[in-house]
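Why do we care about 3D structure at all? Because function follows from shape, and shape follows, mostly, from sequence. That is the central idea of this module. The next example makes it concrete: a single protein chain, its amino acid sequence, and then its structure expressed as tokens.
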Amino acid sequence: MQEEYLKKRTLYLVEKGNGTTVSRDGPSVLIERNFAAPVRIPADYIDKVIIYGNVEIDAFSITLFSSKFIPILIIGRHEESSIILPNTSELKSYTKYQ
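And the structure:
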């Protein structure tokens, strides 16, 4: 059984007027905010990503999430939403049915 602190969790990125930026740092993402210490989170500990509001995220982070099959949900300020699903063409179970 996996330890509680090792379970994959949802990463919530919420705009709170603090200039949140997300960038890739090797196999991790680096989250930086104004007036706060940066936080580094390994992608292996992330189950899914939910972005709400104006959060700056680079393409390399999105590529990292996609390579780890982590879905991303983006919710705009006016409750508009988009979802980015990972590329499943590399999954063995998926290619078996093609």
